[in-house]
Design brief:
Elements (H helix, E strand, L loop, with lengths): L4 E7 L2 E6 L6 E2 L2 E2 L4 E9 L2 H7 L15 E8 L11 E4 L9 H4 L33 E4 L2 H4 L1 E2 L3 H6 L1 H4 L5 H11 L7 E5 L3 H12 L4 E6 L2 H8 L4 E4 L6 H9 L4 E6 L19 H9 E9 L13 H4 L7 H6 L3 E4 L8 H9 L5 H5 L1 E5 L3 H9 L5 E5 L7
Parallel strand pairs: 10-11, 10-13, 11-12, 13-14, 14-15, 16-17
Antiparallel strand pairs: 1-2, 3-4, 5-6, 5-8, 5-17, 6-7, 7-9
This protein binds nicotinamide-adenine-dinucleotide and zinc ion (2 copies).
Amino acid sequence: MCQNHGVAYIKPGEVEVREIDYPKLAIGNRQCHHGVIIKIVATNICGSDQHMVRGRTTAPAGLILGHEITGIVIEAGRDVEFIKEGDLVSVPFNIACGRCRNCKAGQTGICLNVNPARPGAAYGYVDMGGWVGGQAEYVMVPYADFNLLKFPDKDRAMEKIKDLTLLSDIFPTGFHGAVTAGVGPGSIVYVAGAGPVGLACAASCQLLGAAVVIVGDMNKERLEQARSFGCETVDLSQEASLGDQIEAIVGVPEVDSFVDCVGFEAKGHGADANKEQAATVLNSAMEITRAGGAIGIPGLYVTGDPGASDEAAKKGNLSIRIGLGWAKSHSFYTGQCPVMKYHRQLMNAILYDKVQIAKAVNVQVIKLQDAPSGYKDFDKGAAKKFVIDPNGMIMN
Ligand SMILES: NC(=O)c1ccc[n+]([C@@H]2O[C@H](COP(=O)([O-])OP(=O)(O)OC[C@H]3O[C@@H](n4cnc5c(N)ncnc54)[C@H](O)[C@@H]3O)[C@@H](O)[C@H]2O)c1
Ligand SMILES: [Zn+2]
Ligand SMILES: [Zn+2]
């Protein structure tokens, strides 16, 4: 019997690599003929995992983490017709059936059949259907023909694996944030957050032809990373208002498009740059987006936050000045990124050298046993995207 090891959430601030079950082609007691077993080549740590590991969700102890998975198919169920053993594939973090009305409409982030509790599912994530995560050596992927993106040439793909591993989540997510904020040729864009999603979004804005991409954060190292590939930056630890800092760059205190790549753990500005203010990014979006502009919100907002400082926020209620957004006819776009809508095009952009996404987010490859220290460094705000190499297939 093959062995398997994975990263388990233990308690706030603690994850552990432990022996876990080798995956079966089964969903509960039912056989999963449409699924495959994947030997994982690369699996990334995400800011979304950090919400759980910081104790800001109701994630249960022992949850096997990991939703950003790339790997080789080593076993395919009876009903898998087009994906074959040996294929190198990217796994969208959303689990989708391909059969419900939302999947048919391309809304794979809110599939109706993969999570009894609510629309939408993901591997290794609280409230997302109980699917086993893929920060591990092996994982099971259901509805394989529908979900998986096969890389056309394995050797060529392995040469760009540090870029291609970002197709399972943050590259499509950043791109989706930009698209839903209406970014196109000549746009002036503000991206809130210089974490991996914000940086992937900034690179996506450039790919879409934006004229100016301004990235804001209070983390100086991450802002430096944004400048390294041509972004303007705003340092929110400074006292000057966001509008004033934007005006200093583009001559007016407003932008065409705004992307929230921060989410509910947002911190304030100036003297409050270390203090959480969950609604601050949403409120500044309405303040600095021009009338008629659009706001993309890939940053995560939760329905329950046990770590919130006030009672309302514990239930996901935030104080947002919606009247301002209404008066300016803003459009807002929220939710999980439907990865499949974008991953093939972005794969080609990588394979044909139209984007340097691994460089933009500063990929650092680590071993599975170093995942706990990767989590710690990422939590401290390292300007890196940690990619785990669980089977020694990238580093060797
Ligand atoms: N919608 C989706 O499908 C999807 C997918 C992946 C990640 N996400 C979410 O995207 C968000 C970002 O992910 P990440 O991996 O980059 O996380 P991260 O935690 O590494 O980055 C967040 C960054 O925001 C900065 N920040 C805090 N307050 C700020 C403020 N007021 N203004 C500007 N910057 C501020 C932090 O300093 C940090 O650098 C998370 O909420 C994550 O859960 C959503
Ligand atoms: Zn992720
Ligand atoms: Zn579905």
